[in-house]
Specification:
The complex is a heterodimer of chains A (297) and B (329).
Chain A: E1 30-34, E2 40-45, H1 49-68, H2 71-87, H3 89-100, H4 104-124, H5 128-132, E3 134-136, E4 142-150, E5 153-157, H6 165-176, E6 180-184, H7 191-201, E7 210-213, H8 217-226, E8 232-234, H9 240-250, E9 256-258, H10 272-275, E10 278-286
Chain B: H1 14-24, H2 28-37, H3 43-53, H4 60-72, E1 74-77, H5 85-96, E2 110-113, H6 118-124, E3 131-136, H7 146-158, E4 163-167, H8 170-174, H9 178-192, E5 197-201, H10 210-222, E6 227-229, H11 241-258, E7 263-265, H12 273-286, E8 299-301, H13 303-317
Parallel strand pairs in B: 1-2, 1-8, 2-3, 3-4, 4-5, 5-6, 6-7
The chains are: A alpha/beta (297), B alpha/beta (329).
């Protein structure tokens, strides 16, 4: 027997990422993931709506700690994610190349762009407050401040075509501002997303801040859209018909809804995806007769 | 159905059997002989049986029935040093109307408080059928002299408690002074008379072995307990499916032997609807429908109710609910 044939290949079992752990789907189901030419790559978990519910529970638990962490600390952790990605670049290049049918060089460029995007959003964590908040001029003896705070649990439908750069571009802005996320990965190409879970688990991101589900988008998302404990939903990965259905379901508890729009994922994003999931809180603080009647304070 | 107690003499009628049991508690040595004569518990088999019953799938209409039944069996409990009259009143309001958005939600069985809060709870529950349960006898440690424990019980009943949750003297039990434990329970039972039903807490987490839980169950039932209850909720291990199954077997055997029905109350650590339904399956499969009623089975819990309400909302609306839609208590 030749030496090269002696070793059996080790197949990877792709699993979900929920609450900082890597469970299989509660339903026990998997589905076949193929590359762009239809060749089998791996089996990915086929999530059920119960997996979605469990993910929301995990995300809700994580809201307090993550939104309460200092923005600076969140920035450090997101930067750490970029560092970890850098170390596993090779794996992501291979997965992206297979999933999207790109050449190795093109896939490497996509992964580089995705890592840069993490760094870009990591920098925004402690700056977004400056551009969204304000002290407001009001006609009265009040000190009036508006400041933004995270919306809460955000369901994110990752883009279907851009399996990694698109995913990072919708996930990073959600968690950068202190929200927690339940991500539904691209249905056809979930492997880069599931691998990203392994990176997040080793990057000091607290368990539950990001939860990643794979499966049929149309099966998982209606229960997320209708879920009373989900505060917002990003419909980036929904087609027109599904987006309409989900928006109707999301209306019941007045979720924030970010509608799908054509995006060039390679271009530098604006702040729109961060501000979409921020709530403005305005505080009126009485100042007595400050400056009016010669008051001493 | 196999029982764990050797069948009494051939045609002994119930009265004769009870008399026979009176002999059992005549002295420390007869009681000890009886308790140590109980068959040993097969721990592996018990846990496997409890686990296998926990795998039953209860869905749709059965689930709706189970949720409503579980809500109606809850002793909504607050036993904190920081309890205030306001908190007790809030809890009482919740017991009467658990889900203000859905008035078809059943009431809980009782509100469970410390003795000094009984009057507050009683006033808040006036005119409803929700009972007031009070812990007593130096809960949760039970480390006090008998007259103190009896006075504690008397106070709670005088304030209007419908049910008394007493703790046994685990120190005496573990030291082997079974008759002391028996006599203490009997004394508290005498204090309760027909004014209050008596629940006896064994604190199973402190009894170390399943054999001890079986013995304690029999002491409690022989001494006249109306309910046997797993735990105080104040130690690391509280109600588990296995120890509850064991106690259900004990009440089943006790009724087979004496004709007297005794209730069971698992308490502490039951937080989710899934857990509660597992316990209901245990009840149904071990002692049957006669116990599926809040006269004979209760849950000692506080956070369980919110989870049941969220599941109930999910069943009625089709949408997963969240903690924003139930009260914080």
């Amino acid at each position: 027997m030749s030496e090269s044939a002696a070793r059996l290949s080790v197949f990877k079992t792709y699993k979900l990422f929920v609450g900082g752990k890597f469970p299989r789907s509660e339903s026990g189901r998997v589905y076949e993931v193929t590359d762009s030419k239809g060749n089998w790559l791996a089996n990915a978990p086929l999530s059920s709506r119960k997996d979605a519910r469990d993910a929301v529970v995990a995300a809700r638990k994580a809201v307090g700690g993550w939104s309460g962490a200092t923005a600076y600390n969140r920035g450090q952790i997101l930067y750490r994610v970029a560092e970890m990605l850098e170390g596993r670049k090779e794996q992501f290049v291979r997965e992206v190349a297979e999933a999207e049918g790109l050449s190795k060089a093109k896939a490497a460029a996509v992964v580089d762009a995705a890592i840069d995007r993490w760094v870009w959003y990591a920098g925004w964590t402690d700056k977004i407050g400056q551009i969204t908040g304000a002290t407001n001029p009001v006609a009265g003896p009040f000190f009036n401040v508006s400041a933004t705070e995270p919306t809460g649990v955000v369901a994110v439908l990752a883009p279907q075509e851009s399996s990694f750069l698109g995913l990072v571009s919708v996930l990073a802005p959600v968690i950068a501002t202190g929200n927690t996320a339940v991500v539904v990965a691209s249905e056809k190409a979930p492997l880069p997303a599931l691998s990203l879970g392994e990176v997040l688990a080793t990057s000091d991101v607290p368990g539950g801040v990001v939860n990643i589900l794979s499966g049929r988008t149309a099966e998982i998302t209606p229960s997320l859209a209708a879920h009373q404990d989900v505060n917002a939903i990003d419909l980036a990965g929904a087609d027109a018909a599904l987006a309409k259905e989900l928006e109707i379901a999301a209306a019941d508890n007045l979720k924030r809804v970010l509608r799908p729009q054509p995006v060039d994922w390679a271009a530098t994003p604006g702040t729109d995806r961060m501000t979409a999931f921020l709530e403005t809180r305005t505080v009126w603080h009485p100042t007595g007769s400050l400056g009016a009647g010669g008051s001493s304070y | 159905m196999p029982t764990t107690v050797p069948a009494p003499g051939n045609d002994a009628d119930a009265a004769g059997r009870l008399k026979e049991l009176a002999d059992v508690t005549a002295s420390d040595s007869t009681l000890r002989r009886f308790l140590h004569g109980l068959p040993g518990v097969d721990a592996v088999g018990l846990e496997a049986r409890a686990a296998s019953l926990g795998t039953r799938s209860i869905k749709t209409t059965s689930k709706a029935y189970a949720i409503d039944l579980a809500i109606s069996m809850i002793d909504l409990t607050t036993l904190e040093g920081a309890d205030t009259p306001g908190k007790v009143r809030a809890l009482a309001a919740k017991a009467v109307l658990p889900d203000p958005t859905d008035r078809t939600t059943p009431r809980t069985a009782a509100v469970c408080v410390y003795p000094d809060m009984v009057a507050t709870a009683k006033a808040a529950l006036a005119g409803t059928d929700v009972k007031v349960a009070s812990v007593a006898t130096a809960f949760p440690a039970g480390r006090a002299a008998l007259p103190v424990k009896l006075a504690d019980t008397r106070d709670a009943i005088a304030a209007g408690a419908d049910e008394i949750d007493m703790v046994i003297d685990r120190g005496a039990f573990l030291a082997g002074r079974y008759l002391d434990v028996f006599e203490e329970i009997a004394a508290v039972k005498a204090e309760c008379g027909d004014k209050a039903r008596l629940k006896v807490i064994f604190e199973t987490g402190e009894l170390s072995t399943y054999d001890n839980i079986r013995r304690a169950s029999w002491i409690g039932m022989l001494a006249g307990a109306d309910f046997i209850k797993t735990s105080t909720g104040k130690v690391a291990v509280n109600a588990t499916p296995a120890n509850t199954l064991l106690m259900l077997e004990a009440v089943r055997d006790f009724r087979a032997l004496t004709g007297v029905q005794v209730g069971v109350k698992p308490a502490g650590g039951i937080r989710t609807t899934k857990d509660a339904i597992k316990f209901l399956v245990l009840v149904n499969e071990t002692v049957g429908e006669e116990w599926l009623d809040n006269t004979w089975f209760r849950f000692g819990a506080s956070s369980l109710l919110n989870d049941l309400l969220m599941q109930r909302q999910k069943l009625s609306t089709g949408r997963y609910s969240g903690p924003d839609y139930v009260t914080v208590d």
